[in-house]
């Protein structure tokens, strides 16, 4: 039998969709179906039943029920941050692979526990981070050396929401953090793939709305990153209520500059001469499709798994460290005025 025939003979993966009725879950449904059979879904949302009927799979209201009722190889998890760890722990204890929305974990302790559980079960836990599969960001990583030694970066990412944050992201108990954990996770992960882990991060947390201040959920965060090498520093600004939606990474090096936006990137020499312009060759959905195909195709690849674990542990550790320092400062301030 030819290699092609052997591949064709392999059974399709069976996927369980957890949180499929939310915005992100609905976006992934058609892509997952290209590469796997969706054998069930877990969601308590009122609209989940009708959506499951439309897609032709059974709907369950809890992960325990799904584990008893259907056999599956991998769970696609798109739920509020507070539900990630207990869900993933339960799935790994039952020997299931996981492909999940960010964050990989909320705290470094949870990240280490998750990695230990995954390695013990010989299962993967992959995090859905679209920028890693966007050709523009791939171009940036590949060509970073062309600007010499990087000495500065600035990374800005803004939404233009006209109203206060709503839904589970407005709940401290469910979100467990504001824009840093939500939007910022993507940016910290991008930087983790380009630079060493920062040795120190100074953070300013800002609130547009009083209700978000009361819940300790930042509307804007500004970060200044220092690195083991004194020749590299950088800044990030992340917010939900800017006048326009935008994302831009600029890296300055001893030999030029790299500018990256989701739609394209440019390389310039020192002095501003354009060296190369790269434009994303297809729509955003191409990156989503490539991401899900890659993860589902490497569930049993231990090398890919270990690389993913190392990078996600770095990303979680940086964000957890920022929040811990912020909590310490807030407690010191409260003690001072108590």
UniProtKB/TrEMBL annotation:
Tell me which UniProt keywords the record has, alphabetically. Oxidoreductase
Query: Which residues belong to any copy of the GFO/IDH/MocA-like oxidoreductase domain?
Result: 146-258
SUPFAM superfamilies this protein is in?
Glyceraldehyde-3-phosphate dehydrogenase-like, C-terminal domain (SSF55347), NAD(P)-binding Rossmann-fold domains (SSF51735)
Which domain of life does this protein belong to? Answer: Bacteria
Residues spanning the signal sequence: none
Give every Gfo/Idh/MocA-like oxidoreductase N-terminal domain span: 14-125
Extract the GO molecular function terms from the UniProt entry. nucleotide binding; oxidoreductase activity
Please give one Pfam family short name: GFO_IDH_MocA_C3
Tell me its family: Belongs to the Gfo/Idh/MocA family.
This chain belongs to the protein called Oxido-reductase
